[in-house]
Structure formats: C-alpha cells, structure tokens
Amino acid sequence: MPVFWKTKFTIEPGLGMGSYSLGHFFWLMLMLVMIFLLGGKVYRNAPESKRKAIRWITASAIMLDEILKDVITPLTGQWDWSFLPLHLCSISVFVVFLHAMTGSRLLAEYLYAVTLPTALMAMVFPDWTGQLPLLNFMCFHSFSIHLLLVLYPCLLLCGGFRPDWKRLLMIIPAVLLLAVIMYFVNNALDTNFFFVNGGGDGANPLSLLEAHIGRLYLLAMPLIAAICWLPMYIIPSRNRKIIC
Q: 239 CB contacts (<8 Å, ≥6 apart)?
C-alpha cells in the first residue's frame, strides 16, 4: 500500500514530518491567512445571504472531510475503533453542520468555547506528525479538518457573534457528561476519546502533565479550560472588536 494512504497505525516508523517543521508551519500560516481573508475581509463585509452560503460551504467541507476518512480507512483495510467520530473535534463536525442549519446561538457558543480552543490546540500540538509524512492522506485530513474547525467559529466572530457566560454555563454540564461516557467507551474499545484515558501522543500540554503527575493530569483539565476561557470571555466583554 502506498505511504500516502497509510494511517499512523500501519505506516512504517521514521517517516513522520515532525511538529514545527516547514510542513507544520505551512498549515499554521494557511489557517491564519484563511481567517484573515475569508473571515476578516470576505465574511465580515458580506450580506447575510452570502454569509449563510459561506457557512454552508465551510460546514459541508468539514463534513466531507470526515466522511472521506470514514470511507477510505475501511476500504484500505485500516479502520480502527479510534476513527469513530467521538473525539471532541469529531463531535464538532456535527455541531458545525447543525449550526449551519439552525443558526442556534447555543451551538455557536459551543463552537466558540469548545471547538475553537480544542481545534486550535490540535493545530499547534498535532499528535499525528510524529508518524505521518506531509504527503499522506490522513495527515492532510487531520490538518485540514482542524483548520476548518478553527475557521468556522472565527467566521461567526467576524459576523458579530459575541460569547456569553450564561450560555457557556449551559454547555459545561453536557461536555462533562460526554467525558464521563467516553471514559467507559475508551475502556471498552481501548481508545482515548476526549483524552480522558491518556494525554495523547506528542508534546502537547496533557501528555507533558501526564509524564510528570500521571493520572492526576485529569484534575488539571478543568484548570486548563478555565485558563482558556478567562481571556476568551473577558476580552470580548471589554472590547467589542476581537478579530475584525
């Protein structure tokens, strides 16, 4: 099987592109350019009809990206339980699509408070670059889908969405319940959805904490969330123009 179609579970060791390589920085720069041009320039100045079309196109691209993964991995005999759409970012794929359909502010809050920071963390601390080369489908999928998941809530911000603490407090219990459910799912399937059964691969904050304090890293997860949310909610309340 060509290296292009292999996953991190089947590829030979030593072929990874590496984090903070030129390929990684390319994707980070592409993300910033797309946020600036599509969000800050096009979406911000577009009428609502055009904004809706941009949201639909972005949501459809995200869903297609996920579907391609779910089709190609079994076709190539590489499907794994960890490819189920139960990661935080995988669940966000469906939340984005539902938001594009409904325009719900509660879903928009979820995309801002949960999807944006988690997808951005995945872009900055990717756990697939240690095994996968730049010219690989799963590497492309992992970068592209997280890039689009960062882009979508940024579009909403550029369109005038502003976060609200009250809606955040409505979201937190649902996320905690999902995390508890995923703990038992992980034990049954030997997976690591929501990173509640391990800090993950690569030099991300959770894996570094796990290396130093073991399973106590789980207690630090609410603190990490609070550190992310404080500026995300304080700054907009002080300054109405965040990105645009």
A: none
> Residue 150: exposed, middle, or buried by beta-carbon count in 10 A (0-12, 13-18, 19+)?
buried
Q: What is the DSSP string of the chain?
A: --GGG--TTTSPTT----TTSHHHHHHHHHHHHHIIIIIIIIIHHS-HHHHHHHHHHHHHHHHHHHHHHHHHHHHTT---GGGSTTSHHHHHHHHHHHHHHH--HHHHHHIIIIIHHHHHHHHHS-SSTTT--SS-HHHHHHHHHHHHHHHHHHHHHHTT----HHHHHHHHHHHHHHHHHHHHHHHHHT--GGGSS---SSS-HHHHHHHHHGGGHHHHHHHHHHHHHHHHHHHHHH-S-S--
Task: Return the percentage of the chain with pLDDT > 70, whole number.
Answer: 96
Higher pLDDT, 16 or 237: 16
Evaluate whether 131 touches 8 at the Cβ level (below 8 Å).
yes
pLDDT at residue 237, as a whole number: 67
Q: Kindly report, residue by residue over 111-138, the tens digit of the pLDDT.
A: 999 999 999 999 999 999 999 999 999 9
What confidence score (pLDDT) does residue 220 get? 87
HSE-CB at 70 with a 13 A cutoff on CA atoms is 10
Here the tokens at position 89 are 């970012």
- Report whether pLDDT(201) > 80: no
**Can you tell me the mean pLDDT for 156-168?**
94
Over the Cα atoms of the chain, what is R_g? Answer: 18
pLDDT value of residue 1: 63
